[in-house]
Predict the structure.
Amino acid sequence: MLGTLTLFGPLGFSEEGRDLVACFRDADAARRAGSALTSRGVRFELVTEIPEEDPLEAFRAASRPFPVGRKLWIDPGDPSDSVAPEGRVALRLPASRAFGTGGHASTRLALLALEEEDLDGARVLDVGTGSGILALAAAALGAERAVAFDLDGDAVFVARENIARHGFGRRVLLAAAPPSAVAGNFDVVVANMLPEEMLPARREIRGRVASGGRLIVSGIPADRASEVASRVRAKRWALVSRRAEEDWACFTLRRA
């Protein structure tokens, strides 16, 4: 369901109990998303009379920090001075129109995969950065430099604000650009993207991975994991690990 909604450019997502709430910029986009859900047999409620206010304000106010993996502490609420537990690094990412506050399974899977890598002194590339969460996590976990880029100008604006909240954000370089605009090779490349976004750019993305480096791919619906892995994988690439949570999958490849 999330993958379908993402195709129509939502501003952001929030969770209300077992329901997923998607916020759209205009009613036409919401109606098109609703038609797509109907064709897939998904029940939904469309609300168009919404006051002019931040639709995620209440979500941020009710949000509480939560741990991811062994080292990270994600805070999706309004900016605060809350202290992370000993041994964890706080990532302060107020819920916004840019995807990526750590609450979605695809983002958590990518964070767990990053945590398994030895990032001390590494160069990391974050493809389709959204809120900047993965680039910031890489910097927090020891990367010397994390380059983050996205084609969505709104996402880059949000990511810039998030990066500025963190002292280690100075090691994150942010750009509004396509994969082809990024030069050089990286020890770790991470792409948390839907297959419709990832597969057309897979050759460019693979080309940014240094010899012996790793490629982390998340944002893959679980029922398409094998298909996507086979299309992304090329000669002299090895499957290192694979994870799944809820209806999403993530895998890591190593370049020989």
Q: What stands out?
A: The chain has two domains: 2-53, 99-255. The mean pLDDT is 86.
